Structure formats: structure tokens, C-alpha cells
């Protein structure tokens, strides 16, 4: 081999090596970074955060839908002149369906036939409790048609004051009072 060919071969090898390095950097920069949303092996904390946000968003959408259902039921009742029957029937069936998911057993079926009566259940009054659902809305009254005060997350502490229509009147850690669905609470 002549000296000119060796020099040409070395120069070509260096050019190819440089081009390969540059292309590799471009591909790496365009790819996903470990631990981000685009990485299939994301960190558990990222997944938990996304799940928590998604659940909170879905809970808010569900609450909005329940309000719309209540309004539509009222309109149907007004049109049929039968507000008491259709409204209480739907409320009872919705509450019964919800109780099956996270019922703690402390209050199983106690209010299914008492749609607006307050119960002085001594087994829960003044007891501490925690949120057992992933999220739970605290409202100004015992039902989803009442205004939302705040949203609690699983494990948040509260004190139960009384029970009405499958809802607990509670005192939050910061002293605020509100109502929370009993199937989203575990009384200690």
C-alpha cells in the first residue's frame, strides 16, 4: 500500500467516525429521556402522580354528571308530577351502588329507606376517621348537588359529627365543617 492510500484510509475512517458520532448524538437527543412520560420504564412516583391526577379529574367529572342527573330527574319529576317517587328511587339506587365499592361495614344499609332523615348514630359520633377512597369531595350538604368545599385524598384525617342519608357531617383538620359520602370514609 502506498503512503497516499494509507493517509486517505485514515482520513476516511476519521470522517466516518465523526459522522457516526454526530448521528448518534442526534438520535439520542431525539429519543426519550429515562424517567419521563415518553420512557416506557417510568418511575413509580411519576405513575402515581399521573394516576392521582387522573382519578381526581374523573371524580370531578363524575360529580358534575351526578349534579346533571339530579337536575334531569327533578325536571322529569316536574313533568310527570311525580317528583318524590322518581327522585328518591334514583337516589336510593345510586347510593346502594356506591356503597358496594368501599363500604366499611360500620354503616351497612342504615339509611336506604330514610332519604332525608338525620340519624344520631352513637357508633360514629365524635369518632376519628380517614378518607378510604383515593379522593373524596367535602361538600356544604349531604349530597352531590351541594357545593364542593374541598377535595381530600386517601388517608386524610377527619372527625365524624353525625350521619344523614349515607353522608357524614365531618370536621376537617383545619376546623372547617362539611359533608362527605360515608362509603369514602373509614371510621376508626
Question: Which keywords apply here?
Answer:
two-stranded antiparallel sheet, single chain, alpha+beta, six-stranded antiparallel sheet, 188 residues
- Count of individual domains: 1
> Residue ranges: pLDDT <50 for 5 or more in a row?
83-118
Helix/sheet category:
alpha+beta
**Share of residues in helices:** 40-55%
Q: Please, how many helices?
A: 3
The CATH architecture term is Roll
Give the helices and strands as they follow along the chain. HHHEEEEEEEE
Mean of all residue-level pLDDT scores: 76
Beta-strand percentage range: 15-25%
**How many E-type strands?**
8
Radius of gyration based on Cα positions: 30 Å
CATH evolutionary superfamily: SH3 Domains
Distance between the termini: 89 Å
Describe this entry's structure for a reader:
The structure is a single chain. This protein has about 190 residues and is of the alpha+beta class. The protein has one domain: Roll (SH3 type barrels). Helices cover about 45% and strands about 20% of the residues. Strands 1, 2, 5, 6, 7 and 8 form a six-stranded antiparallel beta sheet that branches. A two-stranded antiparallel ribbon has the order 3-4. Strand 5 and strand 6 form a beta hairpin. The chain is elongated. About 20% of the residues have low confidence.
Short description:
The protein has 188 residues and is α+β, with helices and mostly antiparallel strands. It is built from 3 helices and 8 strands. It has a single domain (44-187), classed as Roll (SH3 type barrels).
Strands, helices and their partners?
Layout lengths: L2 H28 L13 H37 L2 H20 L15 E2 L8 E4 L3 E5 L8 E6 L3 E8 L2 E6 L4 E5 L3 E3 L1
Amino acid at each position: 500500500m502506498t503512503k497516499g492510500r494509507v493517509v486517505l484510509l485514515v482520513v476516511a475512517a476519521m470522517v466516518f467516525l465523526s459522522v457516526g458520532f454526530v448521528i448518534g448524538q442526534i438520535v439520542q437527543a431525539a429519543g426519550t429521556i429515562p424517567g419521563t412520560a415518553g420512557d416506557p420504564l417510568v418511575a413509580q412516583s411519576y405513575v402515581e402522580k399521573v394516576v392521582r391526577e387522573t382519578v381526581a379529574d374523573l371524580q370531578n367529572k363524575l360529580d358534575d354528571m351526578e349534579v346533571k342527573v339530579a337536575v334531569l330527574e327533578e325536571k322529569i319529576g316536574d313533568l310527570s308530577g311525580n317528583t318524590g317517587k322518581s327522585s328518591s328511587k334514583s337516589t336510593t339506587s345510586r347510593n346502594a351502588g356506591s356503597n358496594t365499592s368501599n363500604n366499611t361495614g360500620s354503616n351497612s344499609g342504615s339509611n336506604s329507606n330514610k332519604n332525608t332523615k338525620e340519624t344520631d348514630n352513637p357508633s360514629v359520633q365524635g369518632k376519628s376517621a380517614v378518607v378510604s377512597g383515593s379522593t373524596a369531595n367535602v361538600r356544604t350538604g349531604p349530597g352531590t348537588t351541594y357545593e364542593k368545599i374541598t377535595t381530600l385524598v386517601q388517608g386524610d384525617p377527619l372527625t365524624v359529627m353525625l350521619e344523614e342519608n349515607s353522608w357524614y357531617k365531618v370536621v376537617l383538620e383545619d376546623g372547617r365543617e362539611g359533608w362527605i359520602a360515608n362509603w369514602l370514609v373509614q371510621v376508626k
